Amino acid sequence: MSKFKKDGGDKDPAISTSSLPDIVFMLLFFFMVSTVMREVELKVSIDQPEATEIEKLENKALVNYVYIGEPLNAETYGTASRIQLNDAFASVKEVGPYIETRRAEVDEAEVPLLTTSLKVDKETEMGIVTDVKQELRKVQALKISYSTREKMDADKF
Amino acid sequence: MAKRDTPEINAGSMADIAFLLLVFFLVTTTMDSDYGLLRKLPPPLPPETVEPPPIKDRNVFVVLANANDQLLVEGEVMEISQLKESAKEFIANPQRKEDLPAFKVEEIPYFGKTEVSKQVISLQNDRGTSYDLYIQVQNELARAYDELRDELAREKFGQSFQYLVDTGQKKKVSAIKDVYPQRISEAEPKNTGGN
């Protein structure tokens, strides 16, 4: 009797998927714009410490990374903390030359803006970090950043 | 001739292609932006250094961290949670105590003649100190300075220090920094832990 009752055919109408590509492309562009390529393959495990008074590192092209932590492959490399530059393990002595090569790659005007980001595992002993810092001082790479995660601080809010 | 319809291109697989690209970008990229504590290292010491003039004891806030991750602050064992408060008291010296830092009158924009503390924080750690503790100490000291600057900014300009920084009011920011200059000095490394 009802006016709205459909007559016959219980078939569901097919949902149009023609706008699905648009949605996915939108997502795709979002990710393309908001992300950066992973710079290196980490060979050391790094669990960064937490801090509150942190600043964001701007201009990633001008940041050199030094990774320090226990090797992921402990059976081969042992458990002593190691330094990683680019894709390979390095000794303390190689930090200086690494910074110098990086320095040669950038524009002269931008050299003073070069920052060294120390990504260090929180269990690392300060000895190796101090050695790296002394090495950085020798090559006049004085701007450093101790990379940390952001800690949600209860009494700050 | 019969009128030819342009055949419609089947767009059904477009979604698959886009998904494939999407997954590729998801896998190869990282979202994290790099945050950290920015510091400036002191320039290397020239080989023949002239001994710097000694700093009076009352002006130096000594923080020692040993290989067992214990803190010794001004000769007393201290927990990390207390470090900020005692550093703040040291830097500001609100009661002008004799054993806390002396002041020097300086001309600072916005503030006029102001007493600026001669404070220096000296941080010394052992080779065996954990990086975590080191960062926490650095963080607590930075917080002490930040909170003092913030209090001053609110009192003087009625705005938080962070707001002044964010809105690029460089003159006000540098005036506040002149009142509370961040002086954290790290001693040349020593090995005292015996390992």
How would you characterize this protein structure?
- The complex is a heterodimer of chains A (157) and B (195).
- Chain A is an alpha/beta fold.
- Chain A has a domain at 44-150.
- Chain A is built from 4 helices and 10 strands.
- Chain A has helices at residues 20-34, 74-77, 95-105, 126-138; strands spanning 36-37, 44-45, 50-51, 55-56, 63-71, 82-85, 88-90, 115-120, 143-147, 149-150.
- In chain A, the strands form 2 sheets. In chain A, strands 2, 5, 6, 7, 8 and 9 form a 6-stranded mixed beta sheet that branches. Chain A has a two-stranded parallel ribbon with strand order 3-10.
- Chain B has 195 residues and is α/β, with parallel strands linked by helices.
- Chain B has a domain at 57-146: Nucleotidyltransferase, domain 5 (2-Layer Sandwich), CATH 3.30.420.
- Chain B contains 5 helices and 9 strands, in the order αβββββαβββαααβ.
- In chain B, the strands form 2 sheets. Chain B has a 5-stranded mixed beta sheet, covered by helices on one side. Chain B has a two-stranded antiparallel sheet with strand order 6-7.
- At the A-B interface, helix 1, strand 1, strand 4, strand 8 and helix 4 of A face helix 1, strand 1, strand 2 and helix 3 of B.
- Strand 4 (55-56) of chain A pairs antiparallel with strand 2 (35-40) of chain B.
